[in-house]
Amino acid sequence: MSAPTAPRARIRRLQLADFRSYHAAEIRAGDGPVVLVGANGAGKTNLLEAISLLSPGRGLRRAGLDQFAARRPDGARAPGWAVSARVEGAYGEVMLGTGVEAGPEEARARRCRIDGEPVGSAAAFADHLRVVWLTPDMDGLFTGPPSERRRFLDRLVLAVDAEHGARVNALERALRSRNRLLEDPSTDPRYLDAVEQELAALAIAVAAARLETVRRLAAGIALGRDDASPFPWASVTLEGEVERALAERPATLVEDQYRAALGAARPRDRAAGRTLEGPHLSDLSVGHGPKGIAAALGSTGEQKALLIGLALAHARLVGEMVGMAPVMLLDDVVAYLDPTRRAALFEALERLAGQVWMTGADPSAFAALGDRAERFLVTPGHVVPAGQPADNST
After folding, report:
1. Can you tell me the distance from the alpha carbon of 232 to that of 287, in angstroms, rounded to the nearest whole number?
2. Which residues bind ATP (predicted)?
């Protein structure tokens, strides 16, 4: 087995307060994989979602703030919620925390803290912890619309560039501003000039970050290519006019050209009611490497295995680029794998050297992990070490 190439980040203690189905919960973890076992609907994914909020973005479900607060017995939601974790990372041990404090509705906003001190956003957590995940919602990635693959790609970029999410959000705001201005034919062209200048700068920044991540991911996949692996290697490319231009010309020149194209396309875009060119329409093209076919043409099993292989490659890339092996969240991933693929997955995860949190309904699915894993039993509102009665959890 190869030695770890990056420092490990470990969540040593996870605490929840009024979060989703938990009024209070705590998990203490060691060095091994963490396995959360419980019936469907018990709250396993809620625990992974809590961890995902310790990274930039809106978490693995992309939920709104109002959906995180636990419901009280009367059906009303709690006035606030909190997720905190003691993390052992590259800079030693720190406490990361995020949540919404109780207070007037207009003043409620998500807060983030490191060792009790406020920070601007969850992007600041990236110095201490990187998180990547794979969930059942991603199973239709290859056959779904391009917007789903763009969102997937942006999550890949965000794991190595904590500011990428802010740029993507700013790009979406600039696009909405331009579209609103185009609705009125009498809009002063100078307003459109200003918005398009900002839009072009953001578009190039977003496209360049995506393109660089895809390039690095493709290079890493090529380096570790194994046609015999149960998780086939993927070919990945980024398709889009701006991205093709960036691959051939300097970013400053592409930005000028895109800004000019936006100006020339105003009549067309006004008629369409939207901006018809830009990285908001690009697509991540994924192929089944060993077979040389588009991922969408593979069987359901092949697509699942390909997605797992892609997630493993991304986790390796994060470790190489940021110098810290990420925490990996696998929600109900092993349930549909045969014993051979399960064993291969566990071996691949061990080589990554990062902490892994996994969920499943069937304890036997994790038997191959032996005593290397720490197992927890999840029941509605409770999580306890396996073998401990659930009513002792609070």
Report:
1. 10
2. 38-45
Predicted TM-score (pTM) above 0.85: yes
Predicted local distance difference test score (pLDDT) of residue 103: 73
Q: According to the model, what pLDDT value does residue 394 have?
A: 41
Q: Is 41 annotated as a binding residue?
A: yes
Average pLDDT over residues 49-73: 92
Spatial separation of the C-alpha atoms in residues 29 and 394, rounded to whole Å: 17
Distances (CA, A) of 46 to 5, 83, 93, 100, 267: 31, 11, 24, 17, 47
Q: Which domains does the chain have, with CATH numbers?
A: 1-130+326-394 (3.40.50.300), 141-323 (1.20.1050.90)
**SS (HEC) of 305-371:** HHHHHHHHHHHHHHHHHHCCECEEEECCCHHHCCHHHHHHHHHHHHHHCCCEEEEECCHHHHHHHHH
Q: Is 116 annotated as a binding residue?
A: no
Q: Is 300 marked as a binding-site residue?
A: no
Residue 240, CA distances (Å) to 117, 275, 277, 278 in order: 42, 14, 9, 7
Residue 371 sits at the vertex; the CA angle it makes with 129 and 331, to the nearest 5 degrees, is: 45
Q: What are the residue ranges of helices labelled H in 90-188?
A: 146-158, 164-183
272 is in an annotated binding site: no
Confidence of residue 336 (pLDDT cuts 50, 70, 90): confident
Q: Is 45 annotated as a binding residue?
A: yes
Residue 169 known to bind ligand: no
